[in-house]
Amino acid sequence: MKFAYYKAKSLPEAMTMLEELGDKGKIVAGGTDLLIGIQHGKYAAPEALVDISFIDDLNRLNVQNGDGLAIGATVTHGAICRALNVLEKYPALVEASSQLGSPQVRNLATVGGNICNAAPSAETAPALVALKSMARIVGPSGERQIELKDFFLGPSRTDLKQSEILVGLNINEPPQGSGNAYFRLSPRNALDIAIVNVAAYVKLNKDYTFEDVCICMGAVAPTPLRATSAEKALVGETFSEKLMREAGQLAKTHAVPITDVRASAEYRREMVAVLTEKALAKAYERAKLNM
Ligand SMILES: Cc1cc2nc3c(=O)[nH]c(=O)nc-3n(C[C@H](O)[C@H](O)[C@H](O)COP(=O)(O)OP(=O)(O)OC[C@H]3O[C@@H](n4cnc5c(N)ncnc54)[C@H](O)[C@@H]3O)c2cc1C
Q1: Backbone angles phi and psi of 146, in degrees to 5
Q2: What is the pLDDT of residues 225-240, one digit of tens each?
Q3: Are the CB atoms for 77 and 97 separated by under 8 Å?
Q4: Distance CA 276, CA 266 (A)
Q5: What is the model's pTM?
Q6: Where in the chain is the domain with CATH 3.30.390.50?
Q7: Architecture of the domain made up of 57-171
Q8: Which residues line ligand 1 (CB under 6 A)?
């Protein structure tokens, strides 16, 4: 494996490098997907790597009371896990980041890299989609924002165009009376990717009925998948174990998983129901504490 390596010190510098390199260049952040992928022949080795992990503006994690959360693309999963103010309002994200890889991997691997790599099992994708994140993108034609749910086009395929950089993710502060949670299932407790992962966000009315629900599942379709029929079935209803089970069964009907070395499609579908039920119950419990 041989390529040129450029360390960008600012966003404009990274932009210039990427535009000059065109399709010969590739962005690297933590390198925990890219370098291993190149080594294993999953990706063709690029002629040059542009390292964006030293750009201060992309390294910031801002939690503002009332203003929500702004996550720079190169913020590591380790940094997310250590941020107690993120845990307070966005536990689903911390639960996702804290189960990715090992401490060594988490201290290198970035949230932006996890999203741009677009693996169907990407740990943080369901949590960030359930929290209704917006992706901030900068490229040759300027800056744009899109809802993260529309960012994923397929395995390893995103909405990013040539020379565009994901600069960060923004999440509105979850309102009072809301809660969120993330669950994943993996063959091993550490250092293995998820067979199924599910995140849930719920917002309750004053009478404790569901006002708004967002459920996102990973590893059961080419892209993170919303369980829209389960979301709709809960709105206006009151929490019960039976209702959670029904929501899990509805979520299952959306899943189109594959069979691979980790699990069969059938097992994955069953686990979607179980994890959806658990994520909804935990999100509801947190929402009640936040009324
Ligand atoms: C041992 C091990 C265990 C792992 N376990 C897990 C796991 O449990 N769950 C999981 O989800 N993942 C896991 N991973 C995968 C990986 O660590 C994560 O996906 C990580 O978040 C990738 O981030 P990175 O910064 O290393 O990305 P990189 O490898 O630097 O980049 C990944 C891809 O995204 C592109 N990219 C990166 N940043 C940007 C940006 N800002 N804008 C545009 N493009 C960008 C790169 O060009 C590349 O194509 C594991 C990896 C290893 C080595």
Answers
A1: -135, 155
A2: 999 999 999 999 999 9
A3: yes
A4: 16
A5: 0.97
A6: 179-289
A7: 2-Layer Sandwich (3.30)
A8: 26-34, 36, 52, 73, 100-101, 105, 109-110, 112-114, 116-117, 121-123, 160, 165-166, 191, 193
